[in-house]
Write a structure and sequence with these properties.
This protein is of the alpha/beta class. Helices cover 15% and strands 38% of the residues. It contains six helices and 60 strands. The strands form five sheets. It has a 30-stranded parallel β-sheet that branches. A 13-stranded parallel β-sheet has the order 38-35-32-29-26-23-20-17-57-55-53-50-47, with no helix packed on it. It is flat, with a radius of gyration of 38 Å. It starts with a helix and ends with a strand.
């Protein structure tokens, strides 16, 4: 055979070998890749089957936990089994801050039913279904029974409802499980432990340690909009903090105070207007009420165009005039001289008259009526549960109905009818002037004192100090704010004119030494000031529809003709918040449109021709001559914004721990 023929024979053999090798390699690659793809499909199918299985577990456990059934059973199917680990995951729910004492409300393991497929785990835990991939990434399949609502429903109060489900039982691995109702613990509210809604202070903190903590965190963030959801990767933990708003009261009066002495001096006025209908001159009215939360001595010669309500005894003098009602949960002493009440006097106590004043409206009191020296003219009807003790020089022109006796005075003029459950005690040498048309009935019926409930049912203004709220707002805003690129440094440096737009700003002081525009077109403005606020001739102007909230740890001084102007004279657009140590002075012809909210404070003064259009809440010690406090009636149903800035708010809390026993079916 020639060499050429030999080479041809070798080439044929080599070609066949190469082809066979390629076929073998290709077939092997296809088998390997195909098996991996097939396994991936199988794993994903298994994981999907696990999601369906755990969703079934979720629905069945929920029916038992929420009381719709005592027991439920599921058959998971497939080639795999679900495993119970009652030690998996831990939850702690606690309250912190003021009025929050004792151990955590909840501190327990949650347990988990886990179904593993390939590199994924699908689990039921804490009332939700969660899944992790081989890379450890967690996501939520269905949410837990964690319900946070704010601004919905009849009250709109921020509410957290969390009926927590915990799993208990021996370590079980099965494709058939039974769920049995166990004990339920009402963690909050709990009347026997003195834990009631609404919450009044502090924070609510929820901490969860779990393999699925990242998915819990994402759910908290989207469900509550809380700015304090924190995760700890090293410990697989997530924590959410909800702030309890200090429960401020509606601003329902020109002045709400607990100061024991309020001076409304000669020429000073307390009245009202309605900014939703027009300016002060166009809507001026007589709803400028004053509400004092303890015994009050009122002096001065001013005019209160509205009601005065006192949750305690009232003593007055100096010629003050009240055009509305005087309602006193105690004794009403009008003997100080020159006191005029044009409407009703209602007192759950005695009524003391004298000093040359006049009772121009009806009076209903639970106790005695006592005339003092100086003569008093009673021009309307008087109803009292006790006696009427007269002094010379007075006149009774209205009808009197008593539960006790009437003691006339020598020379007293009686022109109205007297009805007494007791007797008319006309002693020796006492000769009253009884008009021929007047009648006197002794041993008559008891008087109707139902109107006294308006006084006895008085509740003092909620003037709990807000120091913690102010300090928390200041510290929180110092840590996170919108100062960058703003005019904050110019305001602190006293080099304005300046403008601030919507956002939160942290300042060491507010002394702009120039005009400041607060543009709320894009949203509200929050100023947190770790110091004083001083404007002396500067103008602070708000533009845009939203509110401005100022929280300061120091004093407020608005003087020298300085103006804080709102849009359309609104008294509800600017809110100044102060601590119990803050002194607030509005003086020297200054104009302020808004609310001063400094409960617990004992030194709020309106001086020297200043004007306030809005409301004052706190220790109002003086409204001086020529000054005016004009209540904007749009404030009647508005409350201050008192969250401390430390998370989403919560006022109502409902937490229970529902134990479910897990058994192999």
């Amino acid at each position: 055979m020639s060499d050429r023929a030999t080479r041809r024979g070798q080439s044929t053999v080599i070609g066949v070998v190469l082809i066979l090798g390629l076929v073998v390699v290709g077939t092997t690659g296809v088998l390997l890749l195909g098996s991996e793809a097939i396994q991936g499909v199988r794993d994903e199918a298994g994981a999907s089957q696990a999601e369906v299985a755990m969703s079934t577990v979720d629905s069945q456990v929920s029916e038992v936990a929420l009381g719709y059934a005592n027991t439920r059973q599921v058959e998971l199917g497939g080639q795999r089994q679900a495993t119970l680990d009652e030690s998996a995951g831990r939850i702690t729910i606690s309250r912190a801050g003021a009025n929050a004492t004792g151990p955590p409300l909840v501190n327990t393991t949650m347990g988990a039913i886990e179904y593993r497929a390939g590199g994924s785990t699908v689990a039921y835990q804490g009332g939700g279904v969660w899944r992790t991939s081989g890379a450890g990434q967690a996501r939520m399949i269905s949410p837990p029974e964690f319900h946070y609502r704010w601004g919905t429903g009849a009250s709109g109060e921020p509410t957290l409802t969390f009926p927590l489900v915990v799993l208990r039982g021996p370590a079980t691995s099965s494709d058939q499980l039974r769920f049995v109702d166990g004990p339920t613990n009402a963690a909050f509210p709990n009347a026997s432990a003195g834990m009631q809604n609404p919450l009044d202070a502090g924070t609510v903190e929820v901490s969860i340690q779990s393999e699925y903590y990242r998915a819990w965190a994402e759910y908290f963030e989207t469900r509550t909009d809380a700015d304090t959801v924190r995760t700890d990767d090293a410990n697989q933990t997530v924590e959410i903090v909800l702030s309890v708003p200090t429960r401020g009261r509606e601003v329902q009066e020109s002045i709400a105070s607990e100061a024991p002495t309020v001076t409304v001096q000669n020429g000073a006025t307390v009245d009202s207007y309605n900014s939703s209908e027009g300016t002060y001159p166009a809507t001026k009215g007589e709803n400028g009420s004053v509400y004092v939360g303890e015994n009050l001595t009122n002096s001065g010669g001013g005019r209160i165009e509205g009601d005065m309500r006192v949750d305690g005894d009232f003593g007055g003098g100096g010629g003050i005039e009240v055009t509305g009602q005087l309602v006193v949960d105690g004794d009403a002493d009008l003997s100080g001289g020159g006191i005029t009440v044009n409407d009703r006097v209602i007192a759950d106590g005695d009524l003391v008259l004298g000093g040359g004043g006049a009772l121009n409206g009806p009076a209903t009191v639970s106790g005695d009526v006592i005339e003092g020296a100086g003569g008093i003219t009673v021009d309307d009807d008087v109803t009292a549960g006790g006696d009427y003790r007269s002094e010379p020089g007075g006149s009774v022109n209205g009808d009197v109905h008593l539960g006790g006796n009437f003691y006339p005075a020598d020379g007293q003029n009686i022109r109205g009818d007297l009805t007494v459950a007791g007797t008319f005690e006309n002693g020796p040498d006492v000769y009253p002037n009884i008009h021929p048309s007047a009648t006197i009935q002794e041993n008559g019926p008891e008087p109707d004192l139902s109107d006294v409930s308006a006084a006895s049912d008085l509740r003092p203004p909620n003037l709990r100090p807000i120091d913690t709220t102010v300090q928390t707002r200041v510290s929180t805003t110092a840590a996170s704010n919108d100062n960058d690129g703003s005019d904050v440094s110019k305001i602190e440096g006293g080099s304005c004119p300046c403008t601030l737009t919507n956002g939160s700003y942290s300042l060491d002081s507010f002394e702009p030494e120039g005009d400041v525009t607060l543009d709320t077109t894009g949203g509200p403005i929050y100023l947190a000031i770790n110091g004083d606020v001083l404007t002396d001739s500067e103008n602070i102007e708000v533009i845009g529809p939203n509110e401005v909230h100022v929280y300061a740890t120091g004093d407020y001084t608005i003087s020298g003709g300085s103006r804080w102007d709102s849009v359309d004279d609104r008294g509800d657009q600017i809110w100044l918040y102060g601590t119990s140590d803050s002194a607030v002075t509005i003086a020297n012809g200054a104009r302020f449109y808004g609310v001063v909210y400094a409960p617990g404070n004992e030194d709020i003064r309106v001086e020297s021709g200043a004007r306030v259009y809005g409301g004052l809440v706190g220790g109002v010690s003086a409204v001086e001559s020529g000054s005016r406090v004009s209540y904007d009636t749009v404030l009647a149903d508005q409350t201050p914004e008192l969250t401390g800035g430390g998370g989403a708010p919560v006022t109502y809390l409902h937490v229970s721990v529902n134990e479910i026993r897990v058994e192999e079916a």
